[in-house]
Amino acid sequence: MIPAAMRAVILREYQAGLDHLSVDDFPIPQPGDHDVIVKMTSAPVHPSDLAFIQGRYGFRRALPTVPGFEGSGVILAVGAQANQTLIGQRVACLATRADGTWAQYLCTGEQDVIPLPNSISDDLAAALLVNPLSAWAMVDLARASGAKAIVQTAAAGALGKMIMRLCQRWGIETINIIRREAQISELEQSGARYILNSSEPTFDKHLRELCVTLGAHIAFDAVGGSLSASVLRALPNGSTLIIYGGLDGQPAQFTVDQFIFRAKQVRGFWLSHWMRDVSSETRAEALMDILANSEDFTSPIAGRYPLEQAPQALQTYESSMTAGKVLLIP
User: Fold this and answer.
1) Separation of alpha carbons 240 and 231, rounded Å
2) Is 206 helix (H, G, I), strand (E, B) or coil?
3) Alpha-carbon distance 205 to 97, whole Å?
4) What is the rounded CA–CA span in Å between residue 95 and residue 105?
5) pLDDT (average), residues 74-100
6) For residues 122 and 41, is the Cβ–Cβ distance under 8 A?
7) pTM of whole model > 0.90?
8) Who contacts 120 (Cβ-Cβ below 8 Å, separation ≥6)?
9) CATH code given to domain 133-273
10) Architecture in CATH of 5-127+299-329
């Protein structure tokens, strides 16, 4: 029996900071014909979640709304035309309807849930889609371009480590950019061979030399700001910088010579567009790879917080995003 209301993190206004979130009762939507109702067991906090609640993401939902882009849970009910055999299955899920996963229940499309093998825990499943699919998609872009090496910023973050591990498996070298000296040993333990600290005075010179030596013509940037321009300058002529985040919070500014005389390109990557544009066969290949090699796509857990403590959980995550995933437990 599904109740009429649930406890949820509620966003009533898009604005900077985190103080405008509350935990309160919220109605549970009725599933459409091809929807499912998931009883949530775990939901992560991502940088994209913070951008969404601050109004800096690629879309806004009608308010009030429940944030959270993904999670894990058990399917309790399905719509009239949905697959009835899904009821009772443990799943990883994406929030594709009016509200998100930071709640006791989620209504989403039946095509947006992935049944889970017993070998994958609820905590691992909670973050099994957004970051892993993004990592797989971007490294697949590099592989399709024939890249021998890539450059990546925010290499010490959860997504950066996934990119590095996938590149290792697919035979692509990585030049890993971090911002704090303390992050170097952690990446070295994960097998990284080339690590550069962007705060060092010799950073630009060493990055340029490594790009030439390793033949890196593609870079993935999650930071933005002045670092984006530094990475673009260091790349050889004809290279491409792909920006998928803006952790710096500042605009990226480039000099026109990089485009006119150096034939370089800057483009964006958004998982929503990739999911829309690639074939169903490619999506299936990515999901099968992620499920079969889940150890490549794991993230350390920095903390598990009851849903009622969501404001504290978000503050913890925002203060140290590279420490590991923060999970909300309904």
Assistant:
1) 10
2) helix
3) 47
4) 11
5) 96
6) yes
7) yes
8) 128, 291, 294
9) 3.40.50.720
10) Alpha-Beta Complex (3.90)
The length of the chain, given as a count of residues: 330
Q: Which two tokens stand for residue 57?
A: 């993401």
Burial category of 44 from C-beta neighbours within 10 Å (exposed 0-12, middle 13-18, buried 19 and up): buried
- CATH 3.90.180.10 maps onto the chain at 5-127+299-329
Tokens of 327: 């999970």
Domain with CATH 3.40.50.720 in the chain: 133-273
CA 163 – CA 174 distance, rounded (Å): 9
Which tens digit of pLDDT belongs to each residue from 210-249? Answer: 999 999 999 999 999 999 999 999 999 999 999 999 999 8
Residues 6+ apart with CB under 8 A from 121: none
The one-letter code for the residue type at 275 is: M
Nearest to 4 by CA among 42, 35, 30, 37: 30
- One-letter amino acid at 197 equals N
